[in-house]
Automatic annotation (TrEMBL):
Its main location: membrane. Residues 74-264 form the ABC transmembrane type-1 domain. The keyword Membrane applies. GO terms for biological process: transmembrane transport. Signal peptide: none annotated. This is Multiple sugar transport system permease protein. Belongs to the binding-protein-dependent transport system permease family. PROSITE patterns: ABC_TM1. The chain crosses the membrane at residues 18-38, 78-102, 109-131, 143-159, 198-223, 243-264. One of its GO terms (cellular component) is plasma membrane. The keyword Protein biosynthesis does not apply. It comes from Andreprevotia lacus DSM 23236. Keywords: Cell membrane, Membrane, Sugar transport, Transmembrane, Transmembrane helix, Transport.
Length: 280
C-alpha cells in the first residue's frame, strides 16, 4: 500500500513534466520554423513537405535585406520604441504617484478616463489620431508614432496601484518631516520602491510599441520612416515576395524583444531574491 501511495504521485509528477515539455515544444515550434525558413530560399520554403532543418541560405537572405529599407526600419523601430518606452515610464510614474499620494478634485474622473483608455481597442483611435496629428503637422514624423505610447492608461493604473499598496503613507510623512520636498519623495523614495512595476511596465510598453503595425503604417507613410514590421510587409509585395529574406528579417526583428525580456527577468529575479533575504 505504501509503495502504491508513493508510485501514484511520482507517476503523476512525471506525467506533468512530460505534458509541460510537450507544451513547451509546441510553443517553440513557430520559432523553430521561423529559424528554418530564414535559412532557405523561397522555392524551398514552399516545397511539400516543407523543410524541417536549417539550410545554408541564411547569409544570402541577410544580404538581400540590404536592398530593402529593412535596416533603416530596424533603427527607426528602435528609436520609436525606446523613446516611447521612456516617455511612458516617466508619465505613468509621475501620474500614478500623484493619483496614489494626493487627493484633489477630479481625481476619480482621471482614474475613470484611464480605465476607459484601456477599454478602447487601438484600431478605434487610429483614424481620429491621424486627423489630429495631421492638423499638428506631425504626419511622417517619428513623434507621431511614439507619442501614443507615452500616455498609457494601463501604465498609469499599474503605477498608481503599486504605489498605493507598496509605499506606506507614514513613510512619506516621515520623509517630509526630515525635510524632503515632493520631488525628492518621488525620486528618492517612490522610484526605488517601484523597480518591479517599472520593469514590468517597460517590458509591456516596449513589446507593444515594437510590435505596433497599424499606427506606424498610417502616420509614417514614407519608406525612409518605415518601422520594421511595416518594412517586412512591404517586402512581401516586392518582386513577388522574397520569403527567405522576409523570414530572416522577422527572425532579426524578434531579437530586441528577447533581449528586453532577458534583462527584465534578471531584474525580477534580483527583486525576488532581495525580498526573500529581507523576509528571512
Amino acid at each position: 500500500m505504501a509503495g502504491q501511495a508513493l508510485n501514484g504521485p511520482r507517476w503523476q509528477h512525471w506525467l506533468a513534466r512530460l505534458w509541460l515539455v510537450a507544451a513547451g515544444m509546441l510553443m517553440l515550434l513557430p520559432f523553430w520554423y521561423l529559424l528554418v525558413f530564414a535559412s532557405h530560399d523561397s522555392a524551398s520554403i514552399f516545397n511539400l513537405p516543407p523543410p524541417m532543418l536549417p539550410g545554408r541560405q541564411f547569409a544570402n537572405n541577410i544580404a538581400t535585406l540590404s536592398a530593402t529599407p529593412f535596416w533603416s526600419a530596424l533603427g527607426n523601430s528602435l528609436y520609436v520604441t525606446c523613446v516611447g518606452t521612456v516617455l511612458s515610464l516617466a508619465v505613468s510614474a509621475l501620474t500614478g504617484f500623484a493619483l496614489a499620494v494626493y487627493r484633489f478634485a477630479g481625481q476619480r474622473m482621471l482614474v475613470a478616463l484611464a480605465l476607459l483608455a484601456m477599454l478602447l481597442p487601438p484600431f478605434m483611435t487610429v483614424l481620429p489620431y491621424f486627423f489630429w496629428v495631421n492638423q499638428l503637422g506631425w504626419v511622417d514624423q517619428f513623434r507621431a508614432a511614439y507619442m501614443p505610447a507615452a500616455v498609457s492608461g494601463m501604465g498609469v493604473l499599474l503605477m498608481r496601484q503599486h504605489i498605493a499598496q507598496g509605499i506606506p503613507q507614514a513613510l512619506l510623512d516621515a520623509a517630509r518631516i526630515d525635510g524632503c520636498n515632493e520631488w525628492q519623495l518621488f525620486v528618492r523614495i517612490a522610484l526605488p520602491l517601484c523597480k518591479p512595476a517599472l520593469a514590468t511596465l517597460a517590458v509591456i510598453c516596449f513589446i507593444a510599441t515594437w510590435n505596433s503595425f497599424l499606427l506606424p503604417l498610417v502616420v509614417l507613410p514614407s519608406p525612409e520612416h518605415y518601422t520594421v514590421h511595416v518594412a517586412l510587409r512591404a517586402m512581401q509585395g516586392a518582386s513577388g515576395g522574397d520569403w527567405g529574406g522576409v523570414m530572416a528579417g522577422a527572425l532579426l526583428a524578434i531579437v530586441p524583444t528577447l533581449i528586453v525580456l532577458a534583462l527584465a527577468t534578471r531584474q525580477w529575479r534580483s527583486v525576488l531574491a532581495g525580498n526573500g533575504m529581507h523576509e528571512h
